[in-house]
Amino acid sequence: MPTVDGGSPSKPSVVKRLLDDRSVAFWQVASGACAVITLIAACSTWGWTRLRSPEDQVKDNPTAESAPAMTSPPSPKPPTTQAEPSTQSSFVARETKYLTTLEPVKEYSWWGKWADAPATVNDVAYKRAITTSTCGYDLYREYLVKRQYKYFRADVGIADDTEDAFEAEVHVVDEQGMVLERATIRPGAPASFDVPVDEVLRLKLLVKEGGCWTRTVVWGDARLVR
Q: Which pLDDT score is estimated for 165?
């Protein structure tokens, strides 16, 4: 080994000593130890986060608290069945034809007569009324309606100024003799008719015999509507 100034051999420098084999091994060990410590610290942080309660996580994450909760959509309600209104209640007349404006095709009155004249029933005045007096036999008037109307309507009763206060039986009949509506009327107690006639060709207003009494039957505002 060479000497300096002819003296004893010089000692290796600090850098050289740090770079010899043993120093390099030392630093490798040190670096490995640091990596292990860093890994342990990271694992500890992750484990602590997992062990925290949901309330603590919500506090640290404000957006999680404001997020709306997921709710299941409401189950659809079963459809309700609505009752269908009756034909008569929903029907609106577009045209009205009073029987006083029609000529009857047939008429029978053994005693008394049929007339188109105003009359009062139960203190209600009817300007468009059909009247007849009854005595002993069935009396009727028949009109040709030709299945062109929806309903026949009338208020039927005993005239207020009738001479005798007796009841009477009245019918609404079609061309085949089928009774479509009937009622027993008395003074102060009229009957309202609302009869389907869309299948009727000839419409008959019938007053049944009930003894020979002087009483006037009134078909108040007798009319056809469609």
A: 75
